[in-house]
Amino acid sequence: MDIFCPMHIFVSASGHIDHVGPTMLKLRPKEAFLGKRFFEVFDLCRPSTAATMEGLKALHGRKLHLQLRDAPRTDLKGVLVPRMRGDGIAINLSFGISIVDALAEYPLTSRDFAITDPTIEMLYLIEAKSAAMEASRSLNQRLQGAMIAAEEQAYTDTLTGLKNRRAMDHILGRLIEGEKSFALMHLDLDFFKAVNDTMGHAAGDTVLQKVARILVEETRDVDTVARVGGDEFVLIFNRLTERDELEEIARRMISRLEEPVPHDGQICRISGSIGTVISTDYEALDAVRLLSDADIALYASKHKGRACHTFYSDDLLEDGRNLAPPVGREAS
Predict the structure, then answer these.
(1) CA-CA 20 to 30 A from 261: which of 1, 7, 142, 156?
(2) What predicted TM-score, i.e. pTM, was given to this entire model?
(3) What's the Cα-to-Cα distance from 315 to each of 254, 318, 322, rounded to whole Å?
(4) Contact at 8 Å (CB) between 296 and 312?
């Protein structure tokens, strides 16, 4: 019986357990079974009518649902038959669908089950399923990582590490759709083309990277800094519409942009011109209109002599010069 039914128990005519199979001993020590009354060790959940030895005998051949009384209260299935000798009974047990919990709770192996027990096949299926799910989880993690990396690359300017035009359009659209207040600055570098023409593109790259660091340092984590052109940047300030505060931020950025940038033994000098629009100044928000008005304010700063900051207002449209880039804008 220990080989054919390693989860069996023998109950004597008096209702005491007098033998248990080797697998049952992995669930509890021998002392927890031998000499104990059946109903001291097990709860008979279904059928729940039997509470005595005579009642148990009456369940001959029926499916039993049992549970160990002490923790862990493992669920078991069983079938009862009379013992060939004496007036006792034999009950062959199994875990049924609770096998997964049992494997987590007890040190069970394939040798703890009868060779013909379908539990063995279930164990193989569980192991195969676990391996397949782990492989699938690993693959999903790699795919997710690759997708995040590709998405990040698609929204990032590779030279400066800032957001690119595509990312800026997405963020601006989301803010407009969410009806959140914000300010938008359009910044253009002054004299940047001269740096490229006289010192080379490597010097220009050094300047752009320095500019990116300044803009990030002068903004908050909730703000957006994007490089939208060769030497053009858009900054979006989330829930910031106070003109005095925006003016101070622009002043600090312009001041820092005028600091000389060393490159390969030479000094690069630029400045920055800024135009700003505030979302609360508009009855209806439109991305194209906001960017256009910020550009007009930027042109106004260029016409003032560069290294200036200007808020957009309808009054700027009265001066026709502000409807097109100022002379020399192409050369920054």
Answers:
(1) 156
(2) 0.57
(3) 24, 5, 10
(4) yes
